[in-house]
């Protein structure tokens, strides 16, 4: 008779003690075969649990805040104030210019002609005023005095003639028509004598106060016209208002420019600063007067300190978070501006800068 087990075959010839020993030896092997598939599942479960735990910790743990900004500097845009054609441009992009140095020369012959015309009008007005201020010439006074005396003599003769004719007419020795003629001649002589006397008095007195005022006003008007046109002529030579560096060129030689047309841009390298943006809920971490250590990749991440000078809200169009998207009120964006302390000559406008703020950092 043969008895079969899971992996062992026993027959009646095997002693019972040997069968029991064989059964005891095969039990651990069967347990190992049953436990073998559970190992990988336990490892996979442990990995999933670990990843989930790390994810929860990462989400719950505050992360450092990386704030990136940009270096900038005061920029001055130079525009033409008069029209004309660009004659010369003695500077190029990147040149360092001094205050008062000529940047452009604009040609405008018509404007120069207007200046000469205005100067001529001024000369005429000044001559008229000088003539009035000098008064009447002595020769003119003497001439008018002689005319007055001649008119007086004519009046005396007319009076004598009238008297004689009147006596003759009264005695009937002269017709009345002759008396009328003598009378009329007397009136004409009297009027001529009055006019000559007034002309002489006018020559002696000279110009009136009102005439002098009109002459002076004409001179002032002519001077204002000259100064206005001269100021425009001076603008034909465009000069740098400060010591700076040429940043951009906007007009080339030979190009026609109108008033307000951009010519070039200057950048003041003595006024370099850094600016970056912060949301409204992060502005509390910084204040005016605070020192912040920043780094610039272009300078090899070398740290440098900046002092915050301004914190100003930007326009409503910039940096808003919509209420419907966040479940909170809208957050505005503030521009923070800081100046390197001490100044950093290597820092150039346009370089990126950044600062890493620790999670719990506050003012």
Low-confidence stretches: 1-13
The 3D shape can be described as rod-shaped
Average pLDDT, all residues:
81
Helix content range: 40-55%
User: H/E series, N to C?
Assistant: EEHHEEEEHHHHEEEEEEHEE
Largest sheet: 8 strands, antiparallel
Query: Which second-level CATH architecture of the domain at 65-74 and 270-357 applies?
Result: Beta Barrel
End-to-end Cα distance: 94 Å
- Number of E strands: 14
How many separate helices?
7
- Using the coordinates shown, work out and report the CATH topology of the domain at 65-74 and 270-357: Elongation Factor Tu (Ef-tu), domain 3
What proportion strand? 25-35%
Fold topology:
Layout: E1 2-4, E2 9-11, H1 16-35, H2 38-60, E3 65-79, E4 84-88, E5 96-97, E6 102-107, H3 109-134, H4 138-171, H5 176-205, H6 209-234, E7 237-239, E8 244-249, E9 256-257, E10 262-279, E11 291-296, E12 302-313, H7 323-326, E13 333-340, E14 352-357
Helix pairs in contact: 3-6, 4-5
């Amino acid at each position: 008779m043969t008895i079969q087990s899971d992996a062992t075959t026993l027959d009646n010839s095997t002693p019972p003690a040997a069968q029991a020993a064989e059964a005891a030896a095969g039990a651990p092997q069967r347990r190992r075969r049953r436990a073998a598939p559970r190992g990988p599942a336990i490892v996979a479960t442990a990995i999933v649990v670990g990843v989930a735990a790390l994810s929860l910790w990462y989400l719950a743990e505050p992360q450092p805040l990386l704030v990136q900004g940009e270096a900038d500097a005061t920029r001055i845009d130079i525009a033409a104030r008069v029209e004309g054609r660009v004659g010369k441009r003695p500077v190029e992009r990147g040149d360092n210019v001094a205050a008062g140095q000529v940047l452009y020369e604009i040609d405008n012959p018509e404007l120069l002609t207007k200046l000469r015309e205005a100067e001529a009008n001024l000369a005429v007005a000044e001559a008229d005023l000088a003539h009035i201020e000098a008064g009447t010439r002595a020769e003119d006074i003497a001439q008018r005095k002689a005319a007055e005396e001649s008119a007086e003599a004519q009046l005396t003769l007319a009076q004598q003639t009238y008297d004689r004719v009147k006596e003759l007419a009264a005695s009937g020795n002269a017709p009345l028509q002759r008396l009328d003629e003598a009378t009329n001649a007397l009136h004409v002589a009297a009027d001529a004598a009055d006019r000559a006397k007034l002309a002489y008095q006018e020559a002696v007195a000279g110009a009136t106060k009102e005439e002098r005022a009109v002459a002076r006003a004409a001179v002032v008007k002519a001077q204002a016209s000259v100064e206005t046109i001269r100021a425009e002529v001076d603008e034909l030579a465009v000069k740098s208002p400060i010591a700076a560096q040429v940043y951009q060129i906007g007009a080339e030689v030979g190009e026609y420019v109108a008033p307000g047309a951009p010519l070039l841009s200057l950048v003041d390298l003595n006024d370099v600063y850094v600016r970056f943006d912060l949301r409204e809920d992060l502005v509390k971490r910084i204040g005016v007067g605070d020192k912040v250590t920043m780094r610039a990749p272009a300078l090899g991440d070398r740290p440098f300190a900046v002092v915050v000078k301004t914190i100003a809200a930007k326009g409503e169009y910039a940096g808003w978070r919509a209420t419907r998207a966040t479940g909170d009120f809208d957050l505005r964006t503030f521009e923070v501006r800081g100046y390197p302390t001490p100044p950093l000559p290597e820092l150039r406008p346009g370089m990126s800068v950044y600062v890493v703020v620790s999670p719990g950092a506050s003012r």
